[in-house]
């Protein structure tokens, strides 16, 4: 249980998925703070690219699958982190979908039952 005034860092599932798709599989997991998962995905993608280069295109579907699975994993992981920290898998109560939500820091206030942006 979180204490009053404790700082909660929210993870944006979209940013996690974006990093895994466009930067490199596993980077979304590293953004989520899950370094072991991130390095597993990075290693898997690197091995896939090596096989692709050696086999000249035989493993294209494997590489596409790695990117998609890493992205989905990072997205779900960010939602799970948010749920465990705030009780809400997506956005904070009363908030709309804001661009800078991933970088926002919230203080939990149990007296009012609200989340206050700092």
Key words describing this protein structure:
4 helices, three-stranded antiparallel beta sheet, 118 residues, 3 strands, mainly alpha
Topology:
Blueprint: E1 7-9, H1 13-23, H2 27-31, H3 35-55, H4 60-86, E2 105-109, E3 114-117
Antiparallel strand pairs: 1-2, 2-3
Helix pairs in contact: 1-4, 3-4
Verbal overview:
- The protein is mainly α and 118 residues long.
- The protein has one domain.
- It has helices at residues 13-23, 27-31, 35-55, 60-86, and strands spanning 7-9, 105-109, 114-117.
- The protein has a three-stranded antiparallel sheet with strand order 1-2-3, with helices on one face.
- A hairpin with a 4-residue loop joins strand 2 (105-109) and strand 3 (114-117).
- Helix 1 (13-23) packs antiparallel against helix 4 (60-86) and helix 3 (35-55) packs antiparallel against helix 4.
- The protein is elongated.
- Mean pLDDT is 75; it is low at 92-112.
């Amino acid at each position: 249980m979180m204490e009053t005034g404790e700082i909660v860092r929210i993870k944006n599932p979209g940013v996690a998925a974006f990093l895994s798709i466009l930067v490199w599989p596993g980077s979304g997991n590293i953004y989520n703070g899950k370094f072991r998962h991130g390095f597993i995905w990075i290693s898997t993608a690197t091995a896939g690219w090596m096989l692709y280069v050696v086999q000249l295109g035989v493993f294209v579907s494997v590489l596409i699958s790695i990117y998609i699975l890493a992205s989905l994993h990072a997205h779900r992981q960010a939602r799970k982190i948010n749920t465990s920290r705030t009780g809400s898998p997506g956005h904070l109560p009363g908030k709309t979908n804001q661009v800078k939500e991933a970088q926002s820091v919230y203080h939990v206030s149990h007296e009012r039952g609200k989340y206050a942006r700092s």
